[in-house]
Amino acid sequence: MKIFKHIAPLKEFLKELRLKGKTIGLVPTMGALHKGHLALIKASQKENSHTVCSIFVNPAQFNNPADLRQYPRTMDRDTELLKEVQCDILFCPDNHEIYPVQPAVHLDFGNLDKVMEGEFRPGHFSGVGIVVAKLVHIVEPDRAYFGQKDWQQFAIIKQLVEQLNFNLKLYSIPTLREPDGLALSSRNLRLSSDLRPLAPVFFKALTQAREKLKAGEKIHDIKKFVREMVEERPGVKLEYFEVADSQNLKILENVNGASRPILCVAGTVGEIRLIDNLFLD
To answer: Which of 97, 127, 167, 269 is least surrounded, with the fewest CB atoms within 10 Å of its CB?
Structure first.
């Protein structure tokens, strides 16, 4: 595996690959890698001759400085995991390499970044869009891979790619879970042994809410059920539970005519913020 910390030598290396007719897949991450990330790597390896995994904890997408400071960083372990799955290229720049000056631009994604995560994390998706645009310009991949757990992020990146005419295909890979249903996430590393058993409540709430929705119950009543179910556990708080159109993220009051509805949830276990989602189908 080749490791690059700087943009110029990476671009030169990738240019040589493209001249030889090679295809490139990109898996953008913030590190603290787990099996979900490795599934993205493997998906890329099936469709591309070379795969680039980027590891960069992007300060522009954190609206909470404490969250940025505490975000898990496990570069040595991440590097070994990538070698084990035979990833071709690791790009792990520092902050100055990606942001030689503080970004002055702000991206607005219309309705997509005003609901759910956008409501609770103002500025988050502008930061996501900026760093993804930078990575796409640097790597110039044929394909890029993201996890379904961050579906709202995927919808926003899809709009970014379409409206800026980036020449690549995007893929969303299904969420991997622990045996008790907890979605794999880098933030899970911060769950203490006392908090970890509480964390699957969000997946359990999503599962039961989906069954109620399929049975014809009203979304308004399901929202009340989810809040009561989640918050009966000490130390667990619900930020939001929404049913949305998965394509335009319009919040739904009923699912009639919606394009593949998705159930989305976010909340905290102790101080650790977790998100999850399930498609209705």
So the answer is: 167
CATH number at residue 230: 3.30.1300.10
37 has catalytic annotation: yes
Residue 16 sits at φ, ψ, to 5 deg, of -65, -40
Domain boundary among 141, 173, 205: 173
In a domain, 161, yes or no: yes
Residue-wise pLDDT tens digits, 164-189 = 999 999 999 999 999 999 999 999 99
pLDDT for 257 = 86
pLDDT at 258 over 90: no
φ and ψ of 29, to 5 deg: -140, 170
Confidence check: pLDDT of 31 > 90: yes
- 147 and 54 in one domain? yes
Q: Which residues pair with 103 in a beta bridge?
A: none
The yes-or-no verdict on residue 130 having pLDDT over 90 is yes
